[in-house]
């Protein structure tokens, strides 16, 4: 239980990057925050809506760049709340999809700090949609598998059953998979996924810089290398990538 003089922590999912895709509830939380801990994938333009005098703290984790450990972020959330502040943890996507929001919520709960969650629009679904790819489509695909590619399939810490994903007959959405895309594709096709399956890579979704590349999955990793594709990027694998529906303006 929290004490009456404590503040409050709100975990806000910022969506895929466009401030217009931030939820109304998320915007309301930003407008009433006293402290905002944000990362570089959040729609930082929305921070202009923060109250005058609000403390804005960049706690982003830039790959091979500046880092703020998760432990330090947890400590800061708790410390500011215990000081009676209204704290927002603002990050991209949805808090609970590869966003470590669960770790932050558990840390606050263990410290007796009141915490609430405002879900965000996940890039796993928004990025394909903006690129004209429905992750499900009647008569084509009836399910979606969302997997993290931040580790290669053969890494001892990888817990994903890539072989099962390969034969799941679902749309496969790979987040954080640029670095190990060659290994991921080799594992999927080696486990039975048809190399001719349509695939796409979406880069900088929900921004003016968004680009989309399409190729059969057997060629998509080679394409990523030849085009010099860098994160943030999402790979979508499945028959739905061939539909090419209307895209975001």
Q: What attributes does this structure have?
A:
2 domains; single chain; elongated; alpha/beta; 26% helix; five-stranded parallel sheet; 249 residues; five-stranded mixed sheet; Cobalt-precorrin-4 Transmethylase, domain 1; 7 helices; Methyltransferase, Cobalt-precorrin-4 Transmethylase, Domain 2
Produce a short descriptive summary:
This protein is α/β, with parallel strands linked by helices. The chain has helices spanning 24-31, 70-82, 101-110, 123-130, 162-166, 181-190, 217-226; strands at 8-13, 35-38, 55-58, 86-91, 115-118, 144-148, 171-175, 198-203, 211-216, 233-237. It contains 7 helices and 10 strands.
Structural description of this entry:
Strand 6, helix 5 and strand 7 form a beta-alpha-beta unit. The model has no long low-confidence stretch (mean pLDDT 95). The protein is α/β, with parallel strands linked by helices. The N and C termini lie far apart (47 Å). The protein folds into two domains: 111 residues, 3-Layer(aba) Sandwich (Cobalt-precorrin-4 Transmethylase, domain 1); 120 residues, Tetrapyrrole methylase, C-terminal domain (Methyltransferase, Cobalt-precorrin-4 Transmethylase, Domain 2).
CATH level 1 name of the largest domain: Alpha Beta
What composes the largest sheet? 5 strands, parallel
CATH topology of the largest domain: Methyltransferase, Cobalt-precorrin-4 Transmethylase, Domain 2
Number of domains: 2
Low-confidence stretches: none
Strand proportion, as a percent range, falls in 15-25%
CATH superfamily of the largest domain: Tetrapyrrole methylase, C-terminal domain
What Rg is obtained from the alpha carbons, in whole angstroms?
Answer: 19 Å
Count of separate DSSP helical elements: 7
End-to-end Cα distance: 47 Å
Spatially, the strands of the biggest sheet line up as 3-2-4-1-5
Fraction of helical residues: 25-40%
Give the overall pLDDT as a whole number: 95
Class by SSE composition: alpha/beta
């Amino acid at each position: 239980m929290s004490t009456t003089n404590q503040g409050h922590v709100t975990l806000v999912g910022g969506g895929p990057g466009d401030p217009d895709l931030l939820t109304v509830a998320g915007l309301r939380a930003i407008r009433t925050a006293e402290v905002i801990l944000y990362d570089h994938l959040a729609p930082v333009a929305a921070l202009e809506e923060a109250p005058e005098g609000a403390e804005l703290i960049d706690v982003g984790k830039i790959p091979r760049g500046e880092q703020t450990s998760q432990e330090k972020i947890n400590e800061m959330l708790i410390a500011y709340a215990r000081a009676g502040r209204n704290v927002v943890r603002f990050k991209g996507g949805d808090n609970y999809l590869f966003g470590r929001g669960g770790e932050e919520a558990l840390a606050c709960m263990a410290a007796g700090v009141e915490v609430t969650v405002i879900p965000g629009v996940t890039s796993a679904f928004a990025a394909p949609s903006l690129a004209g790819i429905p992750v499900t489509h009647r008569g084509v695909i009836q399910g979606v598998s969302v997997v993290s590619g931040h580790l290669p399939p053969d890494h001892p810490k990888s817990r994903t059953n890539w072989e099962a994903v390969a034969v799941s007959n679902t749309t496969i959405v790979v987040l954080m998979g640029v670095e190990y895309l060659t290994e991921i594709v080799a594992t999927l096709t080696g486990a039975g996924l048809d190399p001719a399956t349509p695939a796409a890579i979406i880069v900088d979704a929900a921004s003016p810089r968004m680009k989309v590349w399409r190729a059969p999955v057997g060629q998509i990793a080679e394409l990523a290398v030849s085009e010099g594709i860098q994160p943030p990027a999402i790979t979508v694998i499945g028959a739905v990538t061939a539909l090419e529906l209307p895209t975001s303006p």
